[in-house]
């Protein structure tokens, strides 16, 4: 991804996931915003945003953080919201037997005490494969991959959701379902 597209991706993450009010926009309860309104507000706040650039970011982002509506009129972050005005309604899914969570070694003591908790986000983010979890963990320091007994959790009543970008979501993962290999 070019520097310009990377900059736009970071800007979109900021306003669609965390601080929409920073440019005077309001997301609906599912996180959607009209693309034309987003462009107008972004440009009034010094960003050079166009529909073509937005579409290019959505198509080329390896993390698939954004979704454009089927009618092409709206955009939202696929997951990872910290703003409380948004609660994306993902469909409940049956997870595979195991899912993975990438973190850094400095968080392990806390996780061993309280399990995985969403913190400022709506959900804990899980990966279907270890390599993705390693990549996520590297962003926070020396990576550690935790193996989650996802299907067992589901069978015991925990609800799993799958975001548009393939990230598995759950409210919490109690310690008893974690493997610290």
Which short descriptors sum up this protein?
6 helices; Arc Repressor Mutant, subunit A; 4-stranded antiparallel β-sheet; 21% strand; elongated; alpha+beta
How does this model look, in words?
With 181 residues, the protein is of the alpha+beta class. The chain has six helices and twelve strands. The protein has helices at 3-18, 35-44, 51-60, 108-114, 130-138, 150-155; strands spanning 33-34, 66-68, 74-77, 92-93, 99-104, 116-117, 124-126, 143-148, 160-162, 168-170, 172-173, 178-179. Helix 1 (3-18) packs across helix 3 (51-60). The chain is elongated, with a radius of gyration of 17 Å.
Strand content range: 15-25%
Rg, alpha carbons = 17 Å
Poorly predicted spans: none
Total E-strand runs? 12
Helix fraction by DSSP (H/I, runs of at least 4): 25-40%
Keywords: NAD, Transferase
Pfam families: PTS_2-RNA
InterPro entries: Ptrans_KptA/Tpt1, RNA_2'-PTrans_C, RNA_2'-PTrans_KptA, RNA_2'-PTrans_N
GO molecular function: NAD+ poly-ADP-ribosyltransferase activity; tRNA 2'-phosphotransferase activity
């Amino acid at each position: 991804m070019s520097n310009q597209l990377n900059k736009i991706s970071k800007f979109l993450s900021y306003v669609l996931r965390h601080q929409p009010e920073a440019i005077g926009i309001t997301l609906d309860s599912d996180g959607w915003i009209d693309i034309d309104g987003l462009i107008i507000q972004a440009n009034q706040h010094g960003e050079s945003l166009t529909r073509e650039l937005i579409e290019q970011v959505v198509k080329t982002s390896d993390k698939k953080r954004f979704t454009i509506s089927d009618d092409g009129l709206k955009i939202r972050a696929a997951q990872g919201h910290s703003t409380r005005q948004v609660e994306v309604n993902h469909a409940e899914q049956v997870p595979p037997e195991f899912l993975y969570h990438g973190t850094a070694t400095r968080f392990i003591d806390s996780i061993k005490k309280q399990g995985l908790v969403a913190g400022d986000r709506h959900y804990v983010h899980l990966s279907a494969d270890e390599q993705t979890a390693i990549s996520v963990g590297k962003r926070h320091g020396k990576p550690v991959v935790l193996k989650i007994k996802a299907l067992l959790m589901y069978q015991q009543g925990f609800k799993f959701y799958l975001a548009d970008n393939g990230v598995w979501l759950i409210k919490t993962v109690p310690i008893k379902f974690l493997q610290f290999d």
